[in-house]
Amino acid sequence: GIYSSGKFTGTSNRITKRGSKRLRRALYLAVQCGIRRGANHRISDYYKKKRKEGKPYKVVVIACANKLHHHIYAILYKNEPYQA
């Protein structure tokens, strides 16, 4: 969340370190490998879009890892196979 108090509103939104360290690392590495190989077209298209916007590499990879996390959660929640 964004820290705010009175008229002050904090602007630095850092990545939270909550949750499983191993899961974060696994998602990060999965996204890096997926970007290099172009395995998941949705993630690689999202990566290219964010890079064209001028975002730094690591920021984009974290955003892609978050997107991958949402994909995985939806697959498990709906109990349906992934459709590319």
Describe this structure in words.
The protein is globular. It has three helices and two strands, in the order E-E-H-H-H. The protein has helices at residues 21-37, 41-52, 57-78; strands at residues 4-5, 8-9. It has a domain at 21-78. By secondary structure, the chain is mainly α. It starts with a strand and ends in a 6-residue tail after the last helix.
Q: Which value, in Å, is the CA radius of gyration?
A: 15 Å
The unreliable regions are none
Helix coverage percent of residues?
55-70%
| Total helical elements | 3
Query: What global shape is seen?
Result: globular
User: What is the SS-derived class?
Assistant: mainly alpha
The fraction of residues in strands falls at under 5%
* Integer average pLDDT: 85
N-to-C span: 32 Å
Largest sheet: 2 strands, antiparallel
Note the run of SSEs as H and E: EEHHH
- The largest beta-sheet arranges its strands as 1-2
Number of strands: 2
Give short descriptive properties of this protein.
single chain, 84 residues, mainly alpha, two-stranded antiparallel ribbon, 3 helices
Summarize the structure.
The protein is mainly alpha-helical. Helices cover 61% and strands 5% of the residues. The termini are far apart.
